[in-house]
């Protein structure tokens, strides 16, 4: 009968019922926030876009949902005409 009484008193204890989950949420959230904020600093270290050179940059149009992506990616227009007809 003692284990039942102990479990009943633990369920009635408001500190264990509300306080412990709240503390776990705060501590767990701080660790999660630390990981997500670290991503920001790692991304800056990789490469800044203003340091990049765009001398050999070429604009390539992406395929529309109804188009075949293999036909558009840098292919010759004559090949496109033969495949579509």
From TrEMBL:
Keywords: Membrane, Mitochondrion, Mitochondrion inner membrane, Transmembrane, Transmembrane helix. It is found in: Mitochondrion inner membrane. GO terms for biological process: mitochondrial respiratory chain complex IV assembly. It holds the Pfam family COX16. InterPro entries: Cyt_c_Oxase_assmbl_COX16 (IPR020164). The keyword Mitochondrion applies. The keyword Secreted does not apply. Residues 60-85 are annotated as: Disordered. It is a single-pass membrane protein. GO terms for cellular component: mitochondrial inner membrane. It comes from the Eukaryota. Belongs to the COX16 family. PANTHER family: CYTOCHROME C OXIDASE ASSEMBLY PROTEIN COX16 HOMOLOG, MITOCHONDRIAL, MITOCHONDRIAL OUTER MEMBRANE PROTEIN 25. This is Cytochrome c oxidase assembly protein COX16 homolog, mitochondrial. The gene is LOC102511231.
